[in-house]
Structures are given as structure tokens and as C-alpha cells.
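Predict the structure of Diacylglycerol kinase.
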Amino acid sequence: MSNSWFLIANPTSGNRNFSKQWSKIQQLLKLKKIDYYFVFTQFSKHEIELVQAAIQKGFRTIISIGGDGTLHHVVNGIMLQTYIKTSDITIGVIPLGTGNDWIKTYNIPNNIEKAIEIIHQKKTILQDIGVLETENKKVHYFNNVAGLGYDGYIVNKLKSLKKLGGISYVLAGIYGLLFYKKSTFKMSFDDKKLEESCLMTVIGICQFSGGGMQFTKNVNPSDGLLDITIAKNLTFFDMVFNLPKLYSGKIVNHKKVETYKTKEITIIPQNSKPFIQADGELIGTGKVTVKIIEKAINFIIN
Ligand SMILES: Nc1ncnc2c1ncn2[C@@H]1O[C@H](COP(=O)(O)OP(=O)(O)OP(=O)(O)O)[C@@H](O)[C@H]1O
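Done. Here is the predicted structure for Diacylglycerol kinase.
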């Protein structure tokens, strides 16, 4: 087993100059005498095979350098392997992405120097991981927030806007409010069966999504429960007038919003196939079942 860190860096994440950021990261790691190996991703989802190869070589501490998408695929690589227990792995994050939402739950600043200092201190939490099964029986893991409906629509729109940086989330959000068509979702969890016209249903392990918005209530990332938020018939005006509440998290108290905690939920959209997003990555459309794997991976936190 290796005591070195294994760094997986996505040179395409964020919109800052990657080679400049990378030189800074290398200098800081040397300064802190942190022993490491590194690889750059060469294509989307390359993270999965890179992290699995690293685990087979004996690495147990992985650093994801990029945004939420890079971390999402690193997590999927770990969860999809059967070589070792996933809870033997520790992940640290050096944020280079656009939204960088996962780090916000743990007060990790969007700053390379501070993120490396936090990694050096090695304080960890054993966090839950969510697992989504889509209509075609495909399985996807998520470490932050997943959702169906409006937020999936936004993630799809974001693809063409991310080059604009942080503002892209706001622009995609407004576009979605103008053009996304709500649909009726049948939802079942515990002994509940709901049928509602929904803007979206959000499923959280952690607290922030959409570039700093908060749709989950009283989040605890290691309680073995999914935080479900059902945004019902919210209109364009409801969203615009409540914009500060989307960022402060108070939106969960709105009369058209319901929150639940559960271990498993199935959502079946009626007469439409809305996009499903997981950690800001588009993973499918239509029906989805979501479960939780309690205390699955160690993450370095502040
Ligand atoms: N070399 C590569 N070329 C193209 N795409 C890549 C490459 N490496 C990784 N990717 C993909 O790029 C996507 C975006 O990366 P990431 O989410 O980390 O950055 P971001 O979109 O800027 O940040 P955020 O998600 O925090 O807004 C991910 O789906 C990732 O798998």
C-alpha cells in the first residue's frame, strides 16, 4: 500500500488558466513536503479508470483536482470497483471547477492554497453516497446532490454556457424558468405515495447545488438518509421573488415546497421524460430509483 497521494487533475475544468493553477499546486505540495503521483484526465469519465488503476496499484488517498464533475467521476470509479472496501479510501479536493458546490458543505474555500492546507491537516468524515438507478438499469453514484426536472434541464443548458464562468448558473437558471415545462411526478418512499405537478424533486446528501443554491433541509451527510425536496407548482414569479431564499436555504419553508428524509425513493414522471442530474452531471431521463449507502467513503474536510 502506498502512503503517497494520488492526484487526478482535470485540465478542462473551470475557466481559469489550468497550467498556471497546476504550477501553483505543485509548488505548494512541494512546500508542504506532500509526497504525490499525478495524472491528467484525457477525456470525460477518464477519472473512473484512473482512480481504479490507482487503487489496484495500492493508493488509498486520492485528490480530485477539478470541479464537481471530476469529483463525481472519481467517486463513481471508487464505488464501481470491488477490489477493496470503499471506506478504505480517502478523497481530498483541490477546487478548480465552475460551481464547486460539494466543498461548500464543509467550508472548504475555493482557494488552492487553503484547500492544500486543509488536505495537509487530514481531518476526515465518513460520508454517505447516493445511488441512482435509471430506466435502462444503469447505476450512477453521487456524493452531493441529484435531481429530476428543472435542475436537470438547467444542467443540460449549462453545457453550452459554462465557458462564461460562475454567471452561467444564473443564466441557465433564468432560461429554465422561462422555458422548462413542469410535469406530474408519481413518487413513492416509505409508506407514502404522492402524485404532484412538480418543478423538480431534489435528492441531497450534502447541502449546495446549482452554484451555491440550497434546496435541502437540515443536511447531515453521514446520517444514512436522503434529503428529499419536492418543489411543487412553483411559478416563474415564485422563483424570482424568492431568489435570495434559494441561496439562503429558506426556500424549504415555502408552502409549495415539501421536504422529507428517507432511505429510498422512486420517482416516475408522467407523460414526459425530464433530465436527471447527479452532482451537476447529466445521467439520464425519466424514471429513477434512489438509495443511500451509509458511510461509504472518507472525505477530507475543513
Ligand atoms: N480531459 C478532459 N476532456 C474533456 N472533459 C473532461 C476531461 N476530464 C474530465 N472531463 C469532464 O469534464 C466535466 C466537467 O468537469 P468539472 O465538473 O470538474 O468542471 P466544471 O464543470 O468547470 O465544474 P463544476 O461542475 O464544479 O461547475 C466532467 O464531466 C469531467 O468528467
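The two ends are 26 Å apart (CA to CA).
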